[in-house]
């Protein structure tokens, strides 16, 4: 790929370009490592000192840093440098010409009853079953399975190995054995949703599992049957959501979070990594529950005491009572 | 699919039908949302009040709720409504005609030495290696890999993306480098086992990894080499079982549970979600070990103190000693 | 496969053979269960008593156990019996003839621009995208995806279902919605690396995600974008490493470990299972942070108190103060 001028970038993506518009850019790079033919961005004002040291040909900056940026060389000034950077990566990848082409890879196995928008792409060796709908401009990676009757909106991205519409985990007991409950629902995924690699979204038992518009899921996530996830909620890798739980809109769940079944999380709930949420949360906010790590020997000591916590509290209670009694006996003597 | 009469359902699945047998049913639905042409079930006696409000055409109920159910309309009375519901979903799906057909999808890659029962089904783009046996009526989903010499029983269900018989994780150290131990065992899976989407079951190092009859595994589970899982044990999503561990029969492991290697869990052991089991359990029962979550600021305060637990216990001990000494000095004066 | 003599084994793999070199060996087996035609090994001196009871035809032993081993029958004496065993499994599997053949399975979908060493093997239904390099003797399993421009070294093993080079999880916020940051980097994997089944290694955002030589990853692991993993570091199943984190060389991460983003772990760091590492570790050593499990009822009691830890510490402080004050008042009287 040939290099491109700053003028072309600013023309495509906007922003106020200062400096030599004819400078050639060959790559996008982080502030610390950007080279002489690279464009970079400053989105965190605390890193403003790096403006002095970066060798980048051009820095995308907020108006507050415009003056400092101009003092060192070319810059593009924009209200939200990180957003500008995101759009630049999109534009860059299109220029690279390695975006998936619309259409169905010949090795994919697509049921004749599936309806796939002609602007969507389906990658190599993916399986699209009967009754599936796939919206416009949606990119299905390689080796994805979308099972019968599931619906995927427009402009979604489904990474390789994802399984959408596998059976929910449902059984009735008959004595000691488990009798399968066939999962008769499906999965409904809104527009602009991203599904990570090897992530699994189970079909509903009777109704549907639903991901609202703008939901973003990382890799190796488990979404159980009948879960509902609200708009623009994002989950990092290795999260597991149990059956029939309802996650609100604009939530973030960090890596490894677990949420039990049949509960609700309010909109704007943020859960720290590896935390297990075991009851409904009606108040937005940040929630955490992770055992703080230590050098192993120290952990062993403290973990052993952890099992005596209730006893310790009882001992404190006793101490308080006995001390009060002792004080009562001492005080009158003091006064006398 | 055309609707079906209550009479047909009761004829196929049994139970005592009360009310108009000619009512047409078009779907199965939960009690809360069932509509006028839908059948539902009441398996939890605490929800009996919903009998008044449901619009369902027919409710499957226990004899204890039969009178109330009849008062509102048609019902099917049976000893175990939830089990009846499970059987109904199975019968319903067969009627829908979307059960996998017996036989091997033409896109699957099946080694000529593999033995697949003619009543079994193998989904699109699955890989079945040399020496594999697959039993009668077993359903292998799409994009499943079953590696060399693994054995799958009858009536199993293997969901999409599962990998059965990958190499166990075994290495010997030579200085700082790891030397691979080729995994010469296989995986043996009994009858009536379910394996979830993208779940991995590693082959044994020398002997076999074994899942007994009736085991049910959800999605994204890791079963390491040489693990043995007893009959009818069920594991929810994201569980990890380390090498050579032996899980008893009729156990349940909730989502995200981890079990270390080379230990044994007794029959009828039940482990709460996200708990890590680090030693053998010889007594059946329920075990839990999860950090209780809190609003982040409160968690930060308590987690900081957690690291001083042993010191706190020592301080309580000191207090007890000193208080006793103080009391000893006070008491005689009181008596004097 | 026909049985083989001890002489042939010792000739192929070295070691000092004692006893009847013509004994026929049909399998490798653990010490406890080895039968009369099987070879086994003793790598843990604490198990030396088993030398008396094993029925094995031959035991691989350390010189320190040579005398005892010879007293019971044939043995092979070597400095490192476990390493010898590892090499024996490799040699054995080659004899079995079930090693993957070099070359590309006809069902794999390989981009014409990919460069695959002719000694490498690519399994059934794998997808190798444009610009990928795969080194000599590397074994790619079935149903693996290696996305555009990723590089895999020599003698690597990639298990079935792994996804190498999926998009990193990167978005900029625009109001409440997420704008995708196209991931323009790739994944670079050194020589002698093993990647487990259904493991995901995301491509870098701008630079590369890098696994150094000799890294070993188990199944269902998540390596986020721009992570770097040092030489010979091994991770057990279900580990998750967040973006831009740098793991040192010769580390071990046990199953289910989570590591937050943008931190560094020193060389020779060892993390216990299910521990969450939330800040950089500059000192090598073993780190642990897992809630100790208990019978559920006991856990409930202790977990409830856990939320009052800070209050408990404050109560201890108060007790200490008040007791000191009480003692001060008591002591002078004692002296008087």
TrEMBL record, chains A, B, C:
Domain of life: Bacteria
High-level lineage: Bacteria, Pseudomonadati, Pseudomonadota, Betaproteobacteria, Burkholderiales
Subunit text: Homotrimer.
Family: Belongs to the transferase hexapeptide repeat family. LpxD subfamily.
Pathway of action: Bacterial outer membrane biogenesis; LPS lipid A biosynthesis
Regions annotated as coiled coil: 302-329
The name this protein goes by in its record: UDP-3-O-acylglucosamine N-acyltransferase
Domain UDP-3-O-[3-hydroxymyristoyl] glucosamine N-acyltransferase non-repeat region per the UniProt entry, residue ranges: 23-91
Organism: Lampropedia puyangensis
């Amino acid at each position: 790929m040939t290099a491109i001028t700053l003028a072309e970038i600013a023309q495509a993506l906007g922003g106020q370009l200062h400096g030599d518009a004819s400078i050639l850019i060959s790559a996008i790079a982080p502030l610390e490592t950007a080279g002489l033919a690279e464009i970079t961005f400053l989105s965190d004002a605390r890193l403003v000192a790096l403006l002095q040291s970066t060798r980048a040909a051009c820095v995308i900056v907020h108006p507050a840093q415009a003056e400092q940026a101009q003092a060192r060389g070319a810059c593009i000034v924009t209200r939200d440098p990180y957003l500008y950077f995101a759009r630049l990566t999109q534009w860059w990848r299109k220029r690279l010409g390695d975006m998936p082409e619309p259409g169905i890879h010949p090795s994919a196995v697509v049921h004749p009853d599936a309806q796939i928008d002609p602007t969507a792409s389906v990658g190599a060796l993916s399986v699209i079953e009967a009754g599936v709908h796939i919206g416009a401009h949606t990119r299905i990676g390689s080796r994805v399975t979308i099972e019968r009757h599931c619906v995927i909106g427009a402009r979604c991205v489904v990474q390789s190995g994802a399984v959408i519409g596998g059976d929910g985990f449902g059984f009735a007991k008959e004595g000691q054995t488990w009798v399968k409950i066939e999962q008769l629902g499906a999965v409904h995924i809104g527009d602009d949703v991203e599904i990570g690699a090897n992530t699994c979204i189970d079909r509903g038992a009777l109704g549907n599992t639903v991901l609202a518009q703008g939901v973003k899921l990382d890799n190796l996530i488990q979404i159980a049957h009948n879960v509902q996830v609200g708009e623009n909620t994002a989950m990092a890798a290795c999260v597991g959501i149990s059956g029939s739980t309802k996650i609100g809109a604009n939530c973030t769940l960090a890596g490894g979070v677990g949420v039990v079944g049949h509960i609700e999380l309010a909109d704007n709930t943020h859960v720290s990594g590896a935390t297990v949420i075991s009851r409904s949360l009606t108040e937005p906010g940040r929630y955490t529950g992770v055992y703080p790590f230590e050098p192993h020997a120290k952990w062993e000591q403290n973990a052993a005491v952890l099992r005596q916590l209730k006893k310790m509290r009882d001992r404190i209670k006793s101490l308080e009572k006995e001390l009060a009694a002792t004080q009562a006996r001492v005080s009158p003597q003091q006064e006398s």
